[in-house]
Structures are given as C-alpha cells and as structure tokens.
Design brief:
Blueprint: E1 2-6, H1 10-22, E2 27-30, H2 32-38, E3 49-52, H3 57-70, E4 78-79, E5 86-87
Antiparallel strand pairs: 1-3, 2-3, 4-5
The structure holds zinc ion.
Length: 103
C-alpha cells in the first residue's frame, strides 16, 4: 500500500476517495479515528490519509493531481442556506444535506 493523498480536511479525503472509487480504484482511509480524536486542528501526523495498492498508485496519483488542479479553490468558502454547514469553495453542493450551492 502507498499513501496517495493526505489533507487536514476529512471532507477532502472522502472527496478524493469518491473520485478514486469512481475510477474503480480501491482505497482506504487511515487515521480517520485519530483525526476525530485529535479535535479541531490536529497535528499533521494525525491528518487523515488515503492509501491505495502499489500497483494502482501511479494511476491514483494522476487522478488526484488532476482533481486537485481542476478544483483549485476559486472564490470564497460558502455556507449552506439549508443547514448552515460551512464549505470550501471547491464544493458545488452540501455534503451534509445535499443542497446545491447558491450562486
Ligand atoms: Zn446543507
């Protein structure tokens, strides 16, 4: 197994996991429990990590690099009008309640 991605944001790790799974790449999240236990601003070694098999690493890394560069945050973070959840600018809908980002 190799670590292909790590982020302070568990939301981003799950987002990348979804993208990889959509490309039929099996991946696992590590440190999720540690991250939850560490509280608001965990040390970098507590960040959640995304791991893939060695044989799929190159493909997974390419997909993630593409995803990151195509989702470079533009604009500012936004707040869901329905549930009030705060979101980073790259998200187009609310992960919590599914509401679409307002214009
Ligand atoms: Zn919402």
């Amino acid at each position: 197994m190799k670590r292909v991605y790590s982020s302070q944001s568990i939301t981003m790790v799950h987002h990348m996991m979804n993208i990889l799974e959509n490309n039929s790449i099996v991946c696992v999240v590590r440190n999720e429990d540690l991250f939850m236990a560490a509280g608001e601003l965990p040390a970098i070694e507590c960040w959640p990590e995304l791991w893939v098999s060695d044989s799929e690493y190159d493909q997974a890394k390419g997909i993630i690099d593409t995803a990151i560069s195509s989702e470079t945050p533009k604009g500012t973070s936004w707040k869901c009008p329905d549930c009030g959840e705060e979101h980073e600018p790259q998200f187009t809908d609310c992960w919590k309640c599914g509401a679409i980002r307002p214009d």
